[in-house]
Amino acid sequence: xxKVLAMVLLVLVMVPVLFAAGKAEAKSNYEIVVVxxxxxNPWFVRMKVGVDEFAKGTHHTVYQRGTPDIxxxxxxxxxxxxxxQGVDALCVVPVDLESIEPVLAQARKAGIVVITHEGADLENxxxxxxxxxxxxxxxxxxxxxxxxxxxxxxxxxMVASLTNGSHNEWAxxxxxxxxxxxxxxxxxxxxxxxxxxxxxxxxxNVAKELFKKYPNLKGIMGTSSYDAPGVARxxxxxxxxxxxxxxxxxxxxxxxxxxxxGIVKSxxxxxxxxxxxxxxxxxxKVLDGEKISGVVDxxxxxxxxxxxxxxxxxxxxxxxxxxxNKDNVYDFGF
Amino acid sequence: xGESLLKAVNIYKSFVGVxxxxxxxxxxxxxxxxxxxxENGSGKSTLIKIISGVYTPxxxxxEFEGKRFSKIxxxxxxxxGIQVIYQDFSIFPNLTVMxxxxxxxxxxxxxxxVNHKRMRQIAEExxxxxxxxVDLDAIVGNxxxxxxxxxxxxxxxxxxxxxxxxDEPTTALTRREVSNLFKIILRLKEMGIAILFVSxxxxxxxxxxxxxxxxxxxxxxxxxxxxxxDAKKFTYYMTGREFQVHRFEYEKVKExxxxxxxxxxxxxxxxxxxxxxHSGEIVGITGLLDSGRxxxxxxxxxxxxxxxxxxxxxxxxxxLTNPRRAIHNKIGYLPEDRLSEGLFLSQSIGDNIVISEIDxxxxxxxxxxxxxxxxxxxxxxxxxxxxxxxPANACQTLSGGNQQRVVLAKWLACDLDxxxxxxxxxxxxxxxxxxxxxxxxxxxxxxxxxxxISDDLPEVLExxxxxxxxxxxxxxxxxxxxxxxxxxxxxxxx
Amino acid sequence: xxxxxxxxxxxxxxxxxxxLLAVCILIEIRSGQFFSPNNLxxxxxxxxxxxLMAIGAFMVIVSGGIDVSFPALASLSFYATTKLLLDHxxxxxxxxxFLIAIGFxxxxxxxxxxxxxxxxxxxxxxxxxSSSVFKGLMQGALNSRQLAVIPTGMREWGKKALFVxxxxxxxxxxxxPVAFLVFLFALVFAFFLLRFTMFGRGIYAIGGSEVSAExxxxxxxxxKFLLYIMVGMIASVAGxxxxxxxxxxxxxxxxxxxxxxxxxVVLGGTAITGGRGTLLxxxxxxxxxxxxxNSLILIGIPTSxxxxxxxxxxxxxxGVSAYxxxxxxxxxxxxxxxxxxxx
Amino acid sequence: xxKKRNKLVVDRHMFRLIVMIVAWMIFIAFTRFRKFYNLVNxxxxxxxxxxxxxxxxxxxxxxxxxxIDLSVVGNANLTSILMAYLLINMTDVAGAxxxxxxxxxxxxxxxxxxxxxxxNGLLVSKAxxxxxxxxxxxxxxxxxxxxxxxxxxxxxxxxxTYATTINNRLFGLIPVQLIIFTIMALxxxxxxxxxxxxxxxxxxxxxxxxxxxxxxxxxxxxIKTYLLSGIVAALGGMIMxxxxxxxxxxxxxxxTLQCVLIVVLGGVNPVGGKGKIxxxxxxxVLLRMLETGLNRFPKISSYYISLIWGxxxxxxxxxxxFTENKRVRRKG
Lengths: 334, 494, 343, 332
What we know:
The structure holds 4 protein chains of 4 kinds. Chain A folds into 2 domains: 26-132 and 272-319, Rossmann fold, CATH 3.40.50; 134-269, 3-Layer(aba) Sandwich (Rossmann fold). A 7-stranded mixed sheet of chain A has the order 2-1-3-4-5-13-12, sandwiched between helices. In chain A, strands 6, 7, 8, 9 and 10 form a 5-stranded parallel sheet that branches. The longest helix of chain A has 22 residues, at 2-23. By secondary structure, chain A is an alpha/beta fold. Helix content of chain A is 43%, strand content 17%. The N and C termini of chain A lie far apart (51 Å). Chain B has a 6-stranded mixed sheet with strand order 6-7-8-3-9-10, sandwiched between helices. In chain B, helix 14 (400-412) runs parallel beside helix 15 (430-445). The longest helix of chain B is centred in the middle third of the chain and has 16 residues, at 175-190. In chain C, strand 1 and strand 2 (173-177) form a beta hairpin. Chain C has helices spanning 2-9, 13-31, 37-62, 70-87, 95-118, 123-141, 152-159, 179-196, 198-208, 210-216, 220-246, 258-267, 279-294, 296-299, 306-342; strands at 161-166, 173-177. Chain C is 73% helix and 3% strand. In chain C, helix 4 (70-87) packs antiparallel against helix 5 (95-118) and helix 7 crosses helix 11 (220-246). Chain C is globular. Chain C is built from 15 helices and 2 strands. The two termini of chain C are 25 Å apart. Chain C folds into 2 domains: 34-294, ABC transporter involved in vitamin B12 uptake, BtuC, CATH 1.10.3470.10; 302-343. Chain A binds chain C through residues 16, 39-42, 45, 68-69, 191, 194-195, 199-201, 204-206, 208-213, 215, 229, 233, 237-240, 251, 253-257, and chain C through 31, 33, 38-39, 42, 46, 135, 139-140, 144-146, 148-149, 155, 164, 166, 170-175, 246-248, 250-253, 255, 294-298, 300, 303.
């Protein structure tokens, strides 16, 4: 009985492995792995679509591998693990800049090409790709919010977490943009920046409390893709439609209903699938030994004329972002 | 005597190679009080479990009121009027008296919903049968042991019961509660209910039962009318050995007591208690369960520190605020409840022996001196003749008597001056009981002071030099053992 | 009367109620917003999901076990349900989703129940393992991701309000979701079950003494098996309600809430060793945790202090009830003694 | 006889773990030999597990006494955050730290860990709060203090010397983290099997009442156990500090359940009184091997790891059930 069970156990452990074992291992030049923050976030599911598409069209081994939870330590361990496997290039969207830094240093030491996305402040990278200039993007989200608020009123900012690099840059840029261009708007002094932890429920609860505690609060500038939908739900429920507003990043189809209902006027985004592809394309270029300078063309939509960020040798910025509103929300197909 | 109520004929039962019952035949008649006796491991509980349907016999059959069964299920047993009252009473300490009483019959009726009215009625009827008065809404966990037992008995009576099996029903009862129980048993007999009374307490067997069956090593060694039985025969049937009773004799060697208490008391437990223990003396403390005797024992070991009075060890005043202080002052305590207070059942015999003296078995920095530990264990296993093939075995593999020896060894290893023993032979085989008694007497002869707390009067009379009787937390009698007998002690106790 | 008072003070519920009241008054003083109609409605609606979960956790603890798998179980079943319906482009009402989720919940609960009741494995270990298994199934086999769009029927039901409370001062409104009725129904159901059915009394009996329950004729294995199925069903309902209320299905959002729920249940005076506890206490304890978690901004405590608060609450709350149990044990034993002496 | 059998059962448990490890290694050898069997891979694994391995040791110790420690991660983070602040203060403009800095922070970390552990011990022994709730609460509290101190930010920007020292390899071969873990594991092993303290906590875990009646200082023993658990957790935090060159309130949140899982899989009885360190180490190795091995198969979702973990845990328990049951039946 015992032995039978032991066998069953072993089979159970190995079946999924055997399944996959046959499929993998095509001969190729480079092994390039994309590591997202996690894998259940639709953002990175979309990124995976891009990566898989890229994999089909190339002879390189290209795949995306994420951790089960958004967790800085898990991501760092996964990257270490991939280093040990001796992959050729790593394309990472870091959860947390500080903790990934030493791991990326290890990767580079091991001769692995490191490309990041949303990690402009990282040091131990070959290149970091930003879909656009963070300052411009932040200012643009603010423009959206200001337009909805009619250019006046109290607002605050929401980020996934205070340690997230890009989100905070956007928020900072947004605030700076408001100060310069929308004098009638003021930042809520008591709560200048709140966190949503990439969790729609948290965004919802925080927003609800904020609106209750600060009756004159009129807008929340969201950054992560969970922020605006969560805040929108709070606005709707508190009966604040057309009295309070939000803006931020979001995927088109997921937010179609929100946009159509008019609670959120518009959302901004870039296509994560393309961002993923751009990282891989850049990694291949670097691996091939191509010189990266001047204006870089990665052959990926929106990443055909990348330019170095001012004063940086590693950060490449693409052009433009997409604005979605109720009119064009169905045009993108994702 | 007419028809028999239950007959178990030529029963065999074995567990993976070990024969628990060999060709046992047993019979009980309606309204009969029958005592089933035997040492631990003699097959008593296996037989009960076969009768109540928990086990299926390997061979043999049973007859209940003339109907023959080759095997029965627990439900069949209940339907045929057999009820078992286990030692732990099978109660729910977290629920009310009413629920405890009514659940069984509700379940037997396959009720799905709770009807509080009906349940109350059932409960009231149940307790009325034996004139038991109790608050039906009380939580059972808060009741006394005797009350719990009454609940178990009342519950058994709800059914059309013809036979009640009581597994060691007197173990945790006070003397008065025992006589109460016996009254109820007689009353049940009048109602025509047969009682199978499992016990190994000699005096109880004589007091209550009409007939007896004695098992030894899975075989029936004797059965018949209790009137034909005497103490000597009983012991012989139980153990297969004959014992010589040694009455303890004490000669005072030193005038100075090693241990003395002066007017000690704890509010609500006992008060104004004074006595001395001399080297080589065995002092017996007896009394009913509620006399405060256990609290006194706990106080002398520092578990329930005294609130008034003073304790002296060799003339020096000591404060016993916790067991460590007591051990430090060379006082040990063999607890009443061996299984939960005395032993670490799943741990090795060896560790159980050395645990209290373990600090002395270390080299620097608390590092265990393994050789010394091994030697120490070996010595005590040998000294107390603990029957085990390997002291690394778990303590739960031992019989009750051997387990008690382990607890004893634990304290002897601490090199004590005073050992307090609370019920030293409760649940111990007769054979082991004799051995333990001679060990205790031997310890006294070598100069240790002992206090035996027990309500087993023969035990106290046989082993102590002096006897204190407690009642309601006071010393009501103080006598030399040589000048007293059971009757005299009882007159103080009641 | 005196007796009654004594009974009351020897229980946990009044203390928790007082603590709860103190917290509410503190929030009211700090924000002036606590007793506004819409805030009360908000708290009631925030209570729905944890409340349902707590009912399940409570029953398991009363039976003498401890279940840490219910959030994973709920996640797997609501995710599978939502995904299934989306794949079939389901347009109907909310009944079918609930039935499916309950079905999945029963199945997964049976998985727990099988190992716990039949194999008699420790509940903590089984549920620790099964929560890992459920999570793996959801994320691996179902390839889960956030579902931002849920079937229309579910979405509409989630938005449906019993009534809308309005704060006369700020004009803010809050919906009392229809889901609250489900919570109330489950509460009444559990109350009835635990108090008026032999099955429910069996849960208490098993928690008191499993051996006694077996001997009394309770079908212990079956009762436990059914219990875990039921807990699975309740957890799944809670999960699906959350999806409807959130208007989206996020597979991992609920994971990690098990400990706070258990803390709430124990805070309400349920004995972690089983057998003792009331549904009322359990709800009070859960409510206390829900209120504290949802009112920090109202009190004016920075959100970064949230964990300090919940941590301290758990320690103080359980400490008080531990102290009480200890204290009670002492007075009881000395009282009992006196009675015996008096006899 | 029983103890022997007991031992056999424990050994059977170990045996099962070993069989699984070996089977998995053979399987990997056939399918992904080059990607798995290389020095770097083993070094990586050896550098990764110590952070939660240390915490598992703490959970194991407390579980032997019949308790549990769910505060290990909170403890580790609080310690590492405080030490990170200290390191920032000690870092000079050139980015260097004085040579005594590393021993000093380790010393202080042990002190902090011990203090946090004592707090747990007091809650469990003196306040009589059930360990599962006491440590859940204190863990939440420690995390809360971290959040309040850092506002959720990572604490970094201290000298890289700290990270490079701990992230180093002795003789270019053995990761320093592994050495720290090995020292602590040996220490715990020694405490459990060679000292008076070890015997006492096994006894305490078996029966607290009997321990009291045997004159053991049960409260002190509990406090000491939680103190030890606090120390190993703090050291786990110090390794995290090095591995991620930063400290943050929410690092390693997944480790809590992972540690409990490891310890139980390693054969420690959650009721107390039983468990060996060798089992816990085998469990760590097994889980690490499975996870790392699985990462060698790009097509397999990493999510299956948790499925396998849970499955292994339940199956091992079921196997134990069958052997245990046989034993009980035999005892009859």
